[in-house]
Amino acid sequence: MKRTNSPENWRKSSYSSGDGGNCLEVSDHLLAARAVVPVRDSKIVAEDAAVLTFSAPAWRAFIASLGPVAP
After folding, report:
1. Beta-carbon contacts of residue 8 (< 8 Å; ≥ 6 apart)
2. Are 39 and 51 in contact, with CB atoms under 8 Å apart?
3. How far apart are CA 27 and CA 5, in angstroms?
4. Calpha distance 2→29 (Å, rounded)
5. Is 1 a residue whose pLDDT tops 50?
6. Where is this region: Disordered (predicted)?
7. pLDDT digits (tens, 9 = 90+) for 20-70
8. How far apart (Å, rounded) are the C-alpha atoms in residues 19 and 28?
9. Among 66, 13, 69, 68, residue whose Cα is nearest residue 43
10. From CA 51, how far away is CA 37, in angstroms rounded?
11. Neighbours of 10 (CB within 10 A)
């Protein structure tokens, strides 16, 4: 998978703080083309940084397992 670390391709968790704490970023840029969801550590944005990919069904199941979002 070609890695792209362009900021517009990644979105940070809504629970992320601005202090550089533990956070993940998710990219939707491969969802339609390859049905995968790339995930990375928001603190490591180098071109050679590790990116985990999950199948779209696995990602949806993970999100659903988190339960409802608090208001």
Report:
1. none
2. yes
3. 10
4. 11
5. no
6. 1-20
7. 566 888 887 776 667 888 888 877 767 677 888 899 889 889 988 988 866
8. 24
9. 13
10. 10
11. 20
> Which H, E and C letters describe 6-71, residue by residue?
CHHHCEECCCCCCCCCCCEEECCCCHHHHCEEEEEECCCCCCCCCCEEEEHHHHHHHHHHCCCCCC
d(CA 49, CA 56): 21
Position 39, amino acid:
V
Chain mean position to CA 22: 13
Q: Which structure tokens are listed for 66?
A: 């988190």
Round to whole Å and give the CA distance between 33 and 47: 21
pTM of the model: 0.66
